[in-house]
Target: Ribosomal protein uS12 methylthiotransferase RimO
Amino acid sequence: MTVQTFNPKHSNVNPSKVGYHHKANHNQNRTIDQSANLQNTALVQIDKPNDGSDDAIKTPKVGFVSLGCPKALVDSERIITELTREGYQVAKDYDGADLVVVNTCGFIESAVQESLDAIGEAITKNGKVIVTGCLGKDAQKIRTMHPAVLAVTGAHAYDEVVKAVTHHVPKPAKSKTYDPKIDLINDAGVKLTPAHYAYLKISEGCNHRCTFCIIPSLRGNLVSRTIDSVMNEAVALKKAGVKELLVISQDTSAYGVDLKYKMAFWQGEPIKTKFFDMCQALARLGIWVRLHYVYPYPHVDNVVQIMADSMKISGGRGGLLPYLDIPFQHASPSVLKAMKRPAMSENTLERLAIWRQICPNIVIRSTFVVGFPGETEEDFEYLLNWLKQARLDRVGCFTYSQIDGATANDLPNPVPESIKQARYERFMALAQQISKEKLQEKVGQTLVVLVDEIDFDENIAICRSYADAPEIDGHVYVDDIDETVKVGQFLTVTIDEASEYDLFASFVA
Model:
């Protein structure tokens, strides 16, 4: 599958000629230097005692390349946290690393190739490489192409990776002196995101068997964390300064099904390991909470009510955000049946209408696949008509491509590449027009936004509203800021202009 994106500045460029902004994937790739820089900002920065020792010189360093989705990024964060606790440092480049770990993605063919290329680069530039992640499931492919790799593990194999690292680069002896850089890692662990937002992974794996997907073979069936574990991490992240939690899994709305909604205790109160109960508890934390990978089941209606209630109470600065990431994938009944999509029998337009009635400001993002085997022009027209009625806020799209191990590979009537691309263009042009119209409705409204970056040269704060997930949706660009504006800060702004994908506002102190 391929995806095209467009990063707008101001609207003197026609996006329809160069691509589209809303992304179809959630890639959270981190290069070796990005991993080191983000890891360093996550640690407590206190100098070690000047006792004349040369411990710093002897400290082994591990380079880290992380590829793929937010769930893989969380795996990388956990591995780096454990290695840091063992006394390792994260290297800033290949030359400075005693060994390099490459966390791979194996979901689509382009990601597989990217992962194989990253492994090759690490071997060429360093020589000592451990491979982990989804592509690790196909160890033979990795070793055939790169026989020099030291070890290969699958996804979320934290202990195996740490064991392999310590085998090839022995961990340092524990210092007799207190080392706050290790001992003061907070309970949230090391994060590879900016300090003001973090991913909260609530489960692993998936029970569905969609024909185009190989996630169950890579990550197994659904395994939910207990609710007390999830909430303890959420509180730790809040205490560490996180302003926004992005809840991720492969099927968030199925959370707890495998545990039969096991009862646990958190802060002295009984609470079920269940989607609704988790959302209710997270909404009370007083920070933004954003839900990803939610399927359109009827029980989601009750969670939308939590969104409506919590945002009224918080004034937009905390609670369960009125935002749902729903992987619809298609709308044609025949295509959905061929995909074996869960909830394909649901009347999704009716469900959307119910959600909008409960919470009028709710924002829906989704991804779609065009050119799936057997997709006819009638199927595609059905999808376009559905989108016209659904009027989704944030839309990304893939053109279908085969994935090793997917059962869809054996389906008849493949769609020619030229037709796939033409359908992609038609679909995204419609989605872009809907986005432009919906954002125009925001002009004149007052919104609470979270500052992601500051462009000091242009005196602009690059922000997001409740409607924008980081790195995949749009931005709110706030002009004429002053020195009081900081990254991770909430601002209340009035929208002056809108483009196809972004909003523009002026700062008022």
About this structure: The radius of gyration is 23 Å.
